[in-house]
Amino acid sequence: MRFLLLLLAAWLFALPAHAHDFRPGVLALVESAPGVFDVAWTPPLDSRGEDSNVRVRYPEGCELVDATLTCSHDLAGALRFEGLHSPTMRVAVEVTRLDGTRSEWLVGSSNPSVDPASARPRGVLAWIGLGVLHIYALDHVAFLLGLLLVVRTLRRVVFTVTAFTLAHSLSLALAVLGVIHVPSAPVEATIAASVLLVAREALVDAPTLTHRAPWLVALGFGLVHGLGFASALFELGLPAGMRAGALFGFNVGVELGQLTLVGVYFAVMALTPRKLPRLRALACYAMGGLSALWLIERSLAIFTPS
Fold first, then answer.
1. Less CB within 10 Å around the terminal CB: N or C of the chain?
2. Number of domains in the chain
3. Which of 276, 278, 168 has the alpha carbon at shortest distance from 232?
4. Which residues, other chains included, contact 177 with Cβ-Cβ below 8 Å and sequence gap of 6+?
5. Among 257, 281, 290, 220, which Cα is nearest to 19's?
6. Are residue 117 and residue 137 in the same domain, yes or no?
7. Which helix (H) or strand (E) element contains residue 209?
8. Are residues 236 and 167 in the same domain?
9. How far apart are CA 191 and CA 291, in angstroms?
10. CA distance 187 to 211
11. Which of 63, 60, 119 is nearest to 94 (CA)?
């Protein structure tokens, strides 16, 4: 059995290491003259963590030359995005007018187009959906699962998950409001290290700090995970006009997704009590193998110019 678990961990090393690369695409259009827009286009990442082949189709009557879009009808018509095949792939569209007003939308595989002249800007519900989506990034899921495997009892789960929630909510708010700023590379490396730690701790039964005070470990690493959430929020193009609403919605989404994960965990525990030791070992080896790879890659990114 141990050999099979090690084999699984080794196989997982071949998976893409970009668990936290939630980066959506961003199309920013800034009006520099009536009907003339400066264009900045960053495609979303694909499942391998590489730039996707998503293409932008501009409305009829608009012509793109280099990074300048000239429209004869003030950007009236649909902006279409071809290649949004994955349900998790998103593109944030930002249009800034001459008078400084800024509107934003989010498009995906189910709604791959937007008409800036008529579509309503993105609201709080959209940010809630983005928060739910982001908590399902594999590194966040793995850390939360590792905590649950360590604490086990319901009472300790409540204290530990509450500490994690308070911590990442605090650091997310401080980062979004500009109170603190930490480069993303060391944050991502520390998130990987947090997963490796809880994976190891869940395998052993020793009086370590993680077992004696899991809430304290959740509190400390929760601050780091909150900074990771903030990076994703900034990458989505945080609107200055509704920063508080975006922060609130995104955080609510994260909590809803987190509660769902905890519920699924307890459901699996209840349905498979006899297989729990084997499932626990399997999960720990898988998380340990992946997080070790993430840690190496992300640590190298600290010293490698982007």
1. C
2. 2
3. 168
4. 243, 247
5. 290
6. no
7. helix 209-212
8. yes
9. 9
10. 24
11. 119
Shared domain check, 105 and 151: no
Cβ pair 29, 101 in contact under 8 A: no
The pLDDT value given to residue 23: 62
- Quote the domain boundaries for residue 78: 25-121
Q: State the angle between helix axes of 184-203 and 214-235 in degrees (0 to 180), rounded to the nearest 10.
A: 150
Domain identity same for 268 and 141: yes
Across the chain, which has 306 residues, the per-10-residue mean pLDDT values are 42 44 75 91 70 84 90 83 79 83 78 78 71 80 90 86 91 88 90 93 85 92 91 67 74 87 84 76 88 91 73
Inter-axis angle of helices 154-176 and 214-235, nearest 10: 40
At residue 242, the pLDDT reads 61
CA count, 13 A, side-chain hemisphere, 79: 31
Does residue 13 form part of some domain? no
What is the 8-class DSSP label of residue 44? P
| 236 lies in the same domain as 282 | yes
Q: What does the alpha-carbon distance between residue 2 and residue 174 come to, in Å, rounded to a whole number?
A: 44
Determine the pLDDT at residue 143: 92
- pLDDT (0 to 100) of residue 295: 93
Tokens of 48: 């391998």
Q: Are residues 65 and 99 in the same domain?
A: yes
Q: Is residue 11 part of a domain?
A: no
Are residues 148 and 114 both part of a single domain?
no
Q: Judge whether 56 and 81 are in contact, CB under 8 Å.
A: yes
Q: Is residue 6 part of a domain?
A: no
